[in-house]
Amino acid sequence: MLPEPYRLHHRADFSRTVRRGQRIGRRDLVVHAFVHSYDWARADDGLADATISRDPVAAGSLVRVGGPRFGLIVSKAVGSAVVRHRVARRLRHMCATIVDELPADTDVVIRALPGAATADQAELARQVRSGLRKLGLTPGAAAAPAGRPRVPAGARSRADHRS
Fold first, then answer.
1. N or C, which terminus of the chain has less Cβ within 10 Å?
2. How many other C-beta atoms lie within 10 A of the C-beta of residue 87?
3. Which residues contact 64 (CB under 8 A, 6 or more apart)?
4. Which pLDDT score is estimated for 34?
5. Res 64: pLDDT
6. What is the reported pLDDT for 150?
7. Which residue(s) pair with 24 in the sheet?
8. Contact assessment for residue 33 and residue 135, using Cβ atoms and an 8 Å cutoff
9. Residue numbers of the chain with a pLDDT score lower than 70
10. Please, what's the b/e burial string for 90-126 (b: 16 or more CB within 10 A of its CB; e: otherwise)?
11. Using CA atoms, how far apart are residues 68 and 84, in angstroms rounded to an integer?
């Protein structure tokens, strides 16, 4: 179970994470992440009063307690109510296991795609961790994959295409 301080509840938090954060797609889910920077000079967030007073309590939503927060989006496209709740439980369990690996000022929204209904727990966990690693939020983000170095498609020679 994911403890209360680690959950996103408000629509504004979901919208901010999805619209202003980074996104990475995987086969069965999409991971959105937004790292808060608490820029006091931003008036477009409706915090003009807090900008003048420089008081974080006056801003209301800028006071954070706990660590990273997670939100889940599991639409009807995933399946029936029973299937959607099963997928959400699995995703919540995975989020609870990776709480300690993420920066405390991060909001993460995971959108389940229809394939999440048939994917097993290990595969979903791998996709969530892979998405967070690609976004640079978990350790190992800078590590290059083992094996042959990847060559951009435009840099290949004609001989490479023939083989």
1. C
2. 25
3. 36, 104, 105
4. 93
5. 55
6. 47
7. 31
8. yes
9. 38-66, 140-163
10. bbbebbeebbeebeeebbbbbbbbeebbebeeeebbe
11. 23
Inter-CA distances, 106 with 2, 70, 92, 100, Å: 15, 9, 16, 12
The reported pLDDT for the residue numbered 67 is 79
Q: Which residues pair with 25 in a beta bridge?
A: 30
Check residue 47 and give its pLDDT: 46
Angstrom distance (rounded) from CA 7 to CA 115: 24
Q: Write down the pLDDT at residue 65.
A: 58
CB neighbour list of residue 36: distance below 8 Å, 6 or more residues apart: 64, 105, 106, 107
Strand bridging mode 106-112 / 29-35:
antiparallel
Joined together, the tokens standing for residue 96 give 């609870």
Q: Output the pLDDT for position 38.
A: 59
* Interatomic CA distance for residues 24 and 22, integer angstroms: 7
